[in-house]
Amino acid sequence: MHALGRTRVLALLCFLSQPLIGWAIDLQPNEIVAPAPNKNYLMLSYFSAQNTTFYNNGSVYSRSPFKSPVLDSNYTSLRATRTYAISELPAVSYMQLPYGTVTPAGSLASSPSSSGMGDLTLATAIWPYSDRETRTYFGIAAYLTAPTGSYSSQSPFNVSEHRYKSDLQLGFQKPIAGRVDGMIAVDTMWFGGNSQCGAACSRTLSTSSPVVPLTQKPLTTTQLGPIYNINQMFTIGASYFYVAGGATSINNTYQNNVVNTQRFLVSGLARTPIGRISLQYGRDMEIKNGAIQPRILAVRFLHEF
Questions:
Q1: pLDDT average, residue stretch 242-258
Q2: Is the pLDDT of residue 17 over 60?
Q3: Which CATH architecture has domain 3-304?
Q4: Amino acid 207: pLDDT
Q5: How many CA atoms lie within 13 A of 264 on its CB side?
Q6: What is the mean pLDDT of residues 179-197?
């Protein structure tokens, strides 16, 4: 496969996957804190991410059509959560369904946009250790995402990834000094295959088949940072992320596009009489392969019922 065709595939795949991968498992401040049992919550979230300059093995790639690429991703999701106990250990499960729009712009403006329902995510977490007196917590979470969303093999950009994803996450939080806690979480995501990868894959392989199979190696994310509980109402936090792995193969051809990304995220939470409001903003600091994200924004409203 010639270099331009190969790079085209790399860019499209990274554009498609980065917004979803990032927000599937990013934690808010105190999400590692074990919840009280027998509670029900609804959370409405808005996510916005922009992908721009494309990098290939650490260098900017600016040939057409990636001279000035822009891809805007906007998602609204609804999450229903139930807390409970398993053998006296705190536990929580939730179901989340997004609706989103992916809009190409800049040098990609000629490509069609995509909108519709996203992929359904189910998650369960349990805390083998939790001590509210010492504010020390260790939790384990498992995630499963099913390909329930809108997808067209004829479009290079889709709301759905058209594949199953699973993830296992470990999180630990304890006090550092005074009202400041420290958290660290590590997770690995595994990807099912997409046997219907079309416009983003087959057209660049000079094949007569309208679709070809896409597979991806596991992706590991480490996130850590301080959390400052200002008072009973306000909390702020900052997180550093290192994401590694996730190389893809198309039609059994290895793409040599290992993800190696560093980014940051700052968070603010406010607890009000009607519910909890949170705001998160971040961006990529360094990237090896794919399109850099200069803006990541999330706004959430959590209500107990």
A1: 89
A2: no
A3: Beta Barrel (2.40)
A4: 56
A5: 6
A6: 95
What 3 state SS string does the chain have?
CCHHHHHHHHHHHHHHHHHHHHHHHCCCCCCCCCCCCCCEEEEEEEEEEEECCEEECCEECCCCCCCCEEEEEEEEEEEEEEEEEECCEEEEEEEEEEEEEEEEEECCCCCCCEEEECCEEEEEEEEEEEECCCCEEEEEEEEEEECCCCCCCCCCCCCCCCCCEEEEEEEEEEEEECCEEEEEEEEEEEECCEEEECCCCHHHCCCCCCCEEEEECCEEEEEEEEEEECCCCEEEEEEEEEEEECCEEECCEECCCCEEEEEEEEEEEEEECCEEEEEEEEEEEECCCEECCCEEEEEEEEEEC
Locate 130 and state its tokens.
């939790």
Check whether the bond before 69 is cis (ω within 30° of 0).
no
Position 282 scores a pLDDT of 96
Q: Are 161 and 119 in contact (CB under 8 A)?
A: yes
